[in-house]
């Protein structure tokens, strides 16, 4: 199964799971990263990290470390 | 419904709450104008902002709460927010209603917070802001439908166009007629059963019923602040009950804490179904196209570097004429005082203590205003988040996040605005570490010290056909020394005082918009005012204190006599010149020169006899290993209010008068010829000069920085710790420089 950080720019994926139930996982879910939601990778910062995503119609940036927590299935 | 008089006469309090980047500050400004008080909540670093809304014959207090994505109290901001909303913040008292501002173009995530606010059971109003952005994103909302689903007033607004603001004001004014909001109950019934059970358990111990919101948080936040407080208050038997309740919930397929986000976002879906149509794919707006350029691997970096360069240049060079203006105004006022008073302790206090102290505060205003002008513009237009996005990777190398970049960069001009700028860092640990290392960045006040020492003592050698100059290299080395040492300091702070995991970087990149002039102006005004009122008095007081230590207990009678004589003779000379009697004037001028020479000599003796001079002598054994004599010691002590003061102090001590600068030939030559008490060994050589420069690169000789630190951390602890660690670092650095340097020089 792929994780969010492995997507390529412009790729769309659906969230399968957010691993863990620590405060970071809760924070990610509060921001709307929930099972069944669609995410698109919009690009990376000039130095390669963090990564920018589109979710629920807004733009969110996460570090690779956090994005690795989120398993997805690639849609396109 | 008629209200009792007591309730009408009390000033009603309304809290303004919302996600970050929803235009909350713009709405707050539009509602309250300039009638705003900014401070801190008692004992914490959370900013408290209260404004007044005049409406007909009543006044309503509007409390601007920190922007937050959730009411689950984890960070200090969220803890204070929840306390205020529950009426548990004694500084605020009972909150009568909540206004929740929502980004209409980003409804799903914003309504998550609304669902939590509704659980508070307070009269609530939802403001749908950024209506224009929502339209551009082709989001259409049936406002009446949404109002019915939520059961509370919903108002459409474009705060930065001032559209709908009057509606919001009217609704707030009438909020006392609103009924309490009905909690939406998004969780499965098992969850509410457990809530009931838990409430019963709590009431069995203490008969007063706890708020529903707190019981909910008690169940949901594993190891959270509510849990801690409840176990402390109600006893450890509650911990077991809580654990059992959570286990039962897990078996019923509502695992805590996962259940909350799922249940609330599920509720959001239901509320929006048929009421709002949100396009499936992303609708590309101008903002998205702009962002593609601004965060692009190449163009993004180029624009970023250019912008940062512009800010730094502005901070360094635009502020200079303004600072010069303040300085000349200062000398004009003190010249006026000098002319209208006879010499004496009072005049010295007014000119060298009071006026110099006020000037020492005002001189920071240009840099503060310029930096906050840029910060306010960048924040309001949405680029600030991109600054953090672009610089994050670099800053994580030293254990910080991209948000620390701008404050640290600004500290290279001056740590005072730099530390004030750390308010953009939400994470407390990152913010504290940034504040503590900011004064290590080489600021503009250190430059005069470097220039004086380098021109006087570093040989003008050049390498590679003159491409590389030794003096330039030394200056460069001094400039980066503090920043290089900041890396291990940050690392140690992260390991000791602020331990724990690196905080997550979950950051929204908001839609770009034109910055609002009102928001920008009011933020700059707020910062400048806060600096003057909260830090200014302390900076002023230190300045007067250091003046007193350098003045007393020596007898200044002769000095003041000489001052009076000089001034009287100068007036005579001018009169003679005006009458064309040049030869007589020239004769008198030589007398002035004699007076000045005696004054300068006396000035040096008086400072030696002052408390400052006495301490300087007393600490001589401590500074000897650094290659210094007592005079340098006094210079360092006198420069406690600000580093550049050392130059004027050296001028006084070496009997040249205080009005010397770093390029003064007389000062440079005197320093070159200065001898230790044996009369043979020169005090200064290239190694001593380096030892002084290293000391000034690393020391905390800047009251303003320490006082701003006190204000921003709301405690004396951190300025004290910073002063100690930097002084130790400076001492050890200077000691190593001198001892190793002398060894090298001998071989």
Write up what this structure looks like.
The complex is a heterodimer of chains A (76) and B (747). With 76 residues, chain A is of the alpha+beta class. Chain A is 16% helix and 41% strand. Chain A has a single domain (2-74), classed as SH3 type barrels. In chain A, strands 1-6-2-3-4-5 form a six-stranded antiparallel sheet. The model of chain A has no long low-confidence stretch (mean pLDDT 91). In chain B, the strands form three sheets. Chain B has a seven-stranded mixed sheet, with helices on both faces. In chain B, strands 7-9 form a two-stranded antiparallel sheet. Chain B has 33 helices and twelve strands. With 747 residues, chain B is of the alpha/beta class. Among the domains of chain B are: 5-177, P-loop containing nucleotide triphosphate hydrolases (Rossmann fold), CATH 3.40.50; 189-253.
Number of helices of chain A: 2
* Poorly predicted parts of chain A: none
Q: Per CATH, what is the topology of the domain at 5-177 in chain B?
A: Rossmann fold
Strand order of the largest sheet of chain A: 1-6-2-3-4-5
In short:
The complex is a heterodimer of chains A (about 80) and B (about 750). With about 80 residues, chain A is of the alpha+beta class.
Keyword list:
heterodimer; A: 76 residues; alpha+beta; SH3 type barrels; six-stranded antiparallel β-sheet; 2 helices; 41% strand; globular; B: 747 residues; alpha/beta; Rossmann fold; seven-stranded mixed β-sheet; two-stranded antiparallel ribbon; 33 helices; 62% helix; elongated; disordered N terminus
List the helices and strands and how they pair.
The complex is a heterodimer of chains A (76) and B (747).
Chain A: E1 2-3, E2 12-18, H1 23-30, E3 38-44, E4 51-55, E5 58-62, H2 64-67, E6 70-74
Antiparallel strand pairs in A: 1-6, 2-3, 2-6, 3-4, 4-5
Chain B: H1 5-9, E1 12-18, H2 24-32, E2 36-40, E3 47-55, E4 58-64, H3 76-85, E5 97-103, H4 107-118, E6 124-129, H5 131-136, E7 140-141, H6 143-150, E8 154-156, H7 165-173, H8 189-205, H9 212-220, H10 225-234, H11 237-251, H12 258-272, E9 276-277, H13 286-294, H14 299-340, H15 345-362, H16 365-381, H17 384-396, H18 405-411, H19 415-420, H20 428-437, H21 447-457, E10 462-463, E11 468-469, H22 470-495, E12 507-508, H23 517-551, H24 557-578, H25 582-609, H26 611-618, H27 620-623, H28 630-638, H29 645-653, H30 665-673, H31 686-698, H32 703-713, H33 717-746
Parallel strand pairs in B: 1-4, 1-5, 5-6, 6-8
Antiparallel strand pairs in B: 2-3, 3-4, 7-9, 10-11
Helix pairs in contact in B: 4-12, 8-9, 8-11, 9-10, 14-15, 14-16, 15-23, 16-23, 20-22, 21-22, 21-30, 21-31, 22-31, 23-32, 24-25, 25-26, 26-28, 28-29, 31-33, 32-33
């Amino acid at each position: 199964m792929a994780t969010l950080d492995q997507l390529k720019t412009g790729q769309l994926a659906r969230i399968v799971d957010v691993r863990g139930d620590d405060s970071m996982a809760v924070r990610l879910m509060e921001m709307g990263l929930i099972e069944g939601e669609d995410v698109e990778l919009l690009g990376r910062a000039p130095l390669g990290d963090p990564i920018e995503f589109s979710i629920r119609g807004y733009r969110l940036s996460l570090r690779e470390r956090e994005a690795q927590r989120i398993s997805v299935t690639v849609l396109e | 419904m008629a209200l009792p008089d007591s309730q009408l006469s009390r000033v009603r309090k309304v809290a303004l709450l919302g996600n970050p980047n929803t235009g909350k500050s713009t709405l707050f400004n539009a509602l309250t104008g300039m009638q705003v008080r900014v401070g801190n909540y008692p004992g914490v670093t959370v900013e408290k902002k209260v404004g007044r809304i005049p409406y007909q014959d009543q006044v309503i207090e509007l409390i601007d709460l920190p922007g937050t994505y959730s009411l689950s109290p984890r960070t200090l901001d969220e803890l204070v927010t929840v306390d205020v909303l529950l009426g548990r913040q004694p500084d605020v008292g009972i909150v009568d209603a909540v206004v929740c501002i929502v980004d209409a173009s980003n409804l799903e995530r914003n309504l998550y917070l609304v669902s939590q606010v509704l659980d508070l059971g307070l009269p609530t109003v939802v403001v749908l802001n950024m209506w224009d952005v929502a339209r551009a994103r082709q989001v259409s909302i049936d406002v009446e439908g949404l109002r019915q689903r939520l059961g509370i007033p919903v108002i459409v607004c474009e705060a930065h166009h001032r559209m709908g603001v009057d509606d919001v004001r009217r609704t707030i004014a009438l909020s006392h007629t609103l009924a309490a909001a009905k909690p939406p109950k998004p969780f499965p019934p098992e969850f509410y059963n457990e809530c009931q059970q838990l409430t019963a358990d709590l009431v069995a111990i203490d008969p007063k019923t706890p708020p529903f919101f707190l019981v909910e948080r008690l169940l949901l936040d594993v190891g959270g602040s509510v849990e801690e407080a409840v176990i402390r208050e109600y006893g450890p038997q509650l911990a077991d009950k809580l654990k059992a309740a959570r286990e039962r919930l897990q078996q019923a397929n509502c695992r805590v804490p996962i259940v909350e986000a799922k249940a609330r976002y599920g509720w959001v879906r239901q509320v929006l179904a048929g009421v709002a149509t949100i396009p499936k794919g992303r609708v590309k707006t101008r903002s998205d196209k702009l962002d593609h350029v601004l965060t692009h691997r190449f163009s993004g970096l180029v624009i970023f570097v250019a912008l940062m360069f512009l800010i730094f240049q502005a901070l360094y060079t635009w502020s200079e004429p303004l600072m010069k203006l303040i300085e000349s105004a200062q000398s004009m006022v003190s010249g006026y005082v000098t002319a209208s008073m006879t010499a004496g302790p009072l005049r010295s206090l007014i000119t060298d203590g009071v006026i110099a102290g006020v000037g020492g505060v005002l001189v920071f205003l240009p840099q503060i205003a310029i930096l906050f002008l840029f910060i306010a513009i960048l924040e309001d237009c949405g680029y600030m988040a991109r600054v953090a996005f672009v610089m994050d990777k670099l800053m994580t190398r030293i254990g910080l996040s991209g948000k620390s970049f701008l404050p640290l960069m600004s500290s290279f001009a001056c740590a005072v605005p730099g530390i004030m700028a750390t308010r953009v860092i939400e994470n407390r640990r990152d913010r504290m570490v940034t504040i503590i290392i900011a004064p290590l960045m080489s600021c503009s006040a250190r430059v005069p010290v470097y220039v004086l020492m380098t021109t006087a003592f570093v040989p003008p050698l050049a390498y590679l056909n003159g491409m590389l100059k030794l003096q330039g290299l030394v200056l460069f080395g001094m400039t980066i020394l503090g920043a290089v040492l900041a890396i291990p300091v940050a690392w140690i702070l992260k390991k000791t005082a602020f331990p724990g995991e690196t905080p997550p970087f979950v950051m929204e990149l908001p839609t770009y918009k034109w910055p609002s002039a009102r928001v920008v102006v009011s933020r700059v005004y707020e910062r400048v005012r806060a600096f003057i009122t909260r830090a200014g008095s302390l900076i002023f007081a230190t300045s007067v204190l250091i003046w007193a230590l350098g003045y007393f207990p020596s007898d200044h009678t002769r000095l003041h006599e000489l001052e009076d004589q000089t001034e009287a003779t100068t007036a005579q000379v001018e009169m003679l010149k005006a009458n064309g009697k040049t030869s007589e004037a020239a004769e008198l001028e030589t007398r002035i020169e004699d007076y000045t020479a005696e004054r300068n000599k006396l000035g040096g003796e008086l400072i030696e006899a002052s408390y400052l001079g006495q301490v300087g002598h007393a600490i001589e054994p401590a500074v000897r290993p650094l290659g210094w004599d007592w005079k340098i010691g006094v210079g360092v002590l006198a420069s406690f209010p600000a580093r550049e003061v050392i130059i004027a102090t050296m001028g006084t001590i070496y009997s040249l008068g205080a009005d010397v600068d770093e390029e003064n030939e007389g000062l440079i030559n005197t320093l070159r010829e200065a001898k230790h008490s044996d009369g043979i060994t020169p005090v200064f050589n290239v190694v001593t000069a380096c030892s002084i420069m290293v000391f000034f690169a690393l020391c905390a000789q800047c009251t303003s920085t320490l006082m701003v630190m006190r204000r921003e951390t709301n405690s004396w602890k951190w300025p004290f710790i910073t002063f100690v660690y930097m002084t130790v670092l400076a001492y050890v650095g200077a000691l190593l420089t001198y001892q190793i340097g002398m060894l090298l020089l001998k071989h």
